[in-house]
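<discrete_fold_record>
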Amino acid sequence: MGVTILTPILVLVSWTLIVWLWMYARRIPAMTAANVAPQDAQHPGALAKLLPSEVQRVADNYNHLHEQPTIFYALIVYSHLAGVSDPLNIGLAWGYVGLRIAHSILQNTANIVAMRFALFSLATLTLMVIAVRNLLALG
């Protein structure tokens, strides 16, 4: 089958699963060190108060990878089905994935909010361009 406009979806899904592993590689040792019982994590915000920020931000990033990327997945599947999977949209899809991976690495390490916002904004603009290009293809 080769590389298509759908391939960036596979890469972002795979990255999300890597971040899941990263989250638990950080969270489980931190919970053990802080003597936090698994039951103490029954409510979403509970661990944020019990674990260090450098541990919690990986979990925050994992959650972020389930928010805006849902728009990306829908846009790319639409692009594929509507036949708007030209080289520019494919390049934009790869650009979005690269920006989201860069955002994850930044959030999970240095967590410089201004830089994260810049990456998030560029990723959002990328989605907007894909959406507009798909709308223009209707006419």
Notes: The chain has a mean pLDDT of 96.
